[in-house]
Amino acid sequence: MASEPDLSGTVALVAGATRGAGRGIAVALGAAGATVWCTGRSTRAQRSEYDRPETIEETADLVTSAGGRGVAVRVDHSVPAEVADLVARIDAGSGRLDVLVNDIWGGEGRFEWNVPLWEQDLAQGLQLVRRAVETHLVTSAHALRLLVRRPGGLVVEVTDGTAAYNADHYRISVFYDLAKVAVTRLAFSQAEDLRPVGGTAVALTPGWLRSEIMLGHYGVTEQNWREGTAVAPHFCISESPAFVGRAVVALAADPDRTRWSGRSTSSGELAGVYGFTDVDGTRPDCWRYLDEVVDAGRPPGDAGYR
After folding, report:
1. For residue 129, what are the CA distances in angstroms to 27, 83, 87, 108, 158?
2. Which residues pair with 40 in a beta bridge?
3. 176 catalytically annotated
4. pTM, rounded to two decimals
5. How many angstroms separate the CA atoms of 232 and 3, rounded?
6. Which of the residues 176, 218, 289, 305 is marked catalytic?
7. Range of the domain at 185
8. For 205-249, how does the pLDDT look when each residue is reduced to its tens digit (9 = 90+)?
9. Residue 291 domain-assigned?
10. Domain total in the chain
């Protein structure tokens, strides 16, 4: 990009900002000067059932340190009353909402890989769908009432996989597959509702994300992440959470962002359009890599895909 985006005066809600893509997006918005309301269920006082150390207060502090203003609010986005209270608090505290990022997931470990539907734990699978899809609906139903008061609002539905990739790839389990495709369609549907009021809704996927959970899984850190390729060679195409964060910033700063409305895109595609990079100065294009290298059975190697 020709210059660093300036989102001073912008108010964003990142729903699901505790860790991973949500945290990366929140911090990137803060680095551009935005006020970012950071929600999740893990706080310094009480962890969610994930029982991980990351908290929404930590994310909010990172937003503020990056140059924005971070506000942490514990919210269970499956509870409509809590979301309604959150939106009322944003209205009272900021008086507007310009960007809504639906990154709520809550399904880690709540599905079985490559197990047929009739052998799955039905209660567990339905809970995944509620937490990964219903929460997005609940959040948008309340937050859009504030966002549409001003023209030009942006909704980003964070998912896994582009519409083109997911169209002919089975994603791990029936429940996971359904959740990820449904969120993409939700962006399309919201785009239709927002078009008459000048709003934009986009489905956005990161690539292979170096989240806190993924780094821990491979026993590496962001500093030595390439050592993870010893276990998973295709991990070479992975990206940091900052990359998808910069993708959201680029969309939010684009006065012509309505051209993306209703579409499915990726951090890699947007990097090619807007010119931003990951923290290492590269532009990993994971979904093209999966198609041209992994699915084609070619040997691992990210040369030409960054």
Report:
1. 27, 18, 23, 12, 15
2. 74
3. yes
4. 0.95
5. 36
6. 176
7. 11-225+240-284
8. 999 999 999 999 999 999 999 999 999 999 999 999 999 999 999
9. no
10. 1
